[in-house]
Amino acid sequence: MEYREFGKTGIKISSIGMGTYYDPAFIISRKLHMKGINRTNVEALKSGLDHGITLIDTAELYGTEEVVREAVKDRERDSVFIATKAFSNHLSSYKIRKACLRSLKNLGTDYIDLYQIHFPSHFIPVKETLTEMEKLVDEGKIRYIGISNFNLARTEDAVSKMKKYEIASTQMRYNIYDRELENNGLLEYCKKNKIAMLAYYPLAHGKLAKSVNGESPIGKIADNHKGSKPVHVALNWLLSKGDNIFPIPRASNPEHVIENSKYDSFKLKEDEIIALDSIMNGTRK
């Protein structure tokens, strides 16, 4: 497993993580019926931890903070980097504090490694939210502050509003098929300012994981590396885009998570990266 520094925090975590957004039906079911924890999801996270993945991303919206709690409860706390998010209706100073305390309880932990704003608010000034988050850092309830789904202008604004600490990370959709970040300046800005980029949907909603060896440009490149699969190509491509990139594929199946963890059995060659870069889609310039 490869480990890399997370932004400017000075700590190293696994270069890929595990996401815990499953699907809208799961979220609705959890909200309405509060069904018990899915043991397969728990075992998926445990499998990843057993294979060296240390980053787990969740959110209050997902209804999976308790799943994370169950997966990490027998681990040394400092062996896992837990990231969660406050939803956009909880961004006033009062509400984000309550949301943080609720997430701490759901996760069964004394502190959150990375606390993120899930979506920017159109009503609450980001300065108000970030000021309260800095207080949460001072109190030891969170270690680092992140944002998610912020465009370049909003990211620059958030960075400018920080007084005591820095924005450690952002989280955006990024994969071989979806490269808007390369065109809108956000990827370059984060590289320049050493802001970690958590890439969600790194497998394009599973499309890349379903690719078959030899049947697509991605599958053909997988054939060049013995024992590799298209999913490994997709993760390696993302990691080649900067030392600040951390793909977070969904962890819902133990076998798939273990397969993801084998991504580092090879490195893409320069000509292979160029070939993947040439894949076109609607967001590609």
In terms of quaternary structure, the protein is single chain
Termini Cα gap: 33 Å
- The CATH superfamily is identified as NADP-dependent oxidoreductase domain
Largest sheet: 8 strands, parallel
Portion of residues within helices? 25-40%
List the helices and strands and how they pair.
Blueprint: E1 3-5, E2 12-14, E3 17-19, H1 24-33, H2 39-50, E4 55-57, H3 65-72, E5 81-86, H4 93-107, E6 112-117, H5 126-138, E7 142-148, H6 152-161, E8 167-173, H7 180-184, H8 186-192, E9 196-200, H9 217-223, H10 230-239, E10 245-247, H11 254-260, H12 270-277
Helix pairs in contact: 2-3, 2-11, 4-5, 9-10
Explained architecture:
By secondary structure, the chain is an alpha/beta fold. The protein has one domain (3-277): NADP-dependent oxidoreductase domain (TIM Barrel), CATH 3.20.20. Helices cover 39% and strands 16% of the residues. The protein contains 12 helices and 10 strands. It has helices at residues 24-33, 39-50, 65-72, 93-107, 126-138, 152-161, 180-184, 186-192, 217-223, 230-239, 254-260, 270-277, and strands at 3-5, 12-14, 17-19, 55-57, 81-86, 112-117, 142-148, 167-173, 196-200, 245-247. Helix 4 links the parallel strand 5 and strand 6. Helix 2 (39-50) packs across helix 3, helix 2 (39-50) runs parallel beside helix 11 (254-260) and helix 9 (217-223) crosses helix 10 (230-239). The longest helix has 15 residues, at 93-107.
